Amino acid sequence: MKSILYIAFASSLLCSSFTLTKENKSFSSPIEKIQTNIDRDAIISYSKQYLGTPYSYAGNTPKGFDCSGFVNYIFKHFDVIVPRSSNGYKNLGTAKKAEDFKVGDVLVFYGYRNKTIVGHVGIICEANGMHSKFIHASSGKAGSVTISDLDSDHYSKRFYKCVDVLPR
Prior knowledge:
The protein has four helices and seven strands. It has helices spanning 2-28, 40-48, 67-77, 153-156, and strands spanning 60-61, 64-65, 106-110, 118-126, 133-137, 145-149, 159-163. It has a five-stranded antiparallel β-sheet with strand order 6-5-4-3-7. A two-stranded antiparallel sheet has the order 1-2. Strand 1 (60-61) and strand 2 form a beta hairpin.
């Protein structure tokens, strides 16, 4: 009788340990995490450490970034899932009014050759409406992660929208 009770106790202990392990693993998945208090300034501080990283077509590592690879990499560090492709931002979120732009929002631009296709993204690092500055991986003159002015001719003409990708 004691051996049956011992086996039952050991079995229940063993089963509960598997359940706890599985539950702990589910909380470590970025998709399952719910963060509501991400520090927007921390996003910018983290992103600025990559200034000067070379532009690399389809790059998404500190060895080289393209624009969406950079934005994706930065937000992934904060467990925020965003599109990997710049075109993935076309229908994402609701466009914000310029006076509502915040540090950490994502700026979405049309391509420089085709004004109907989304082709570039960056993260606002200094919010001031249409006079904001943003950090991004540029394939242009800089050829690296750099900070640019939204109100420059090159970017103001291509501006599509600004979206907040952070959880509320």
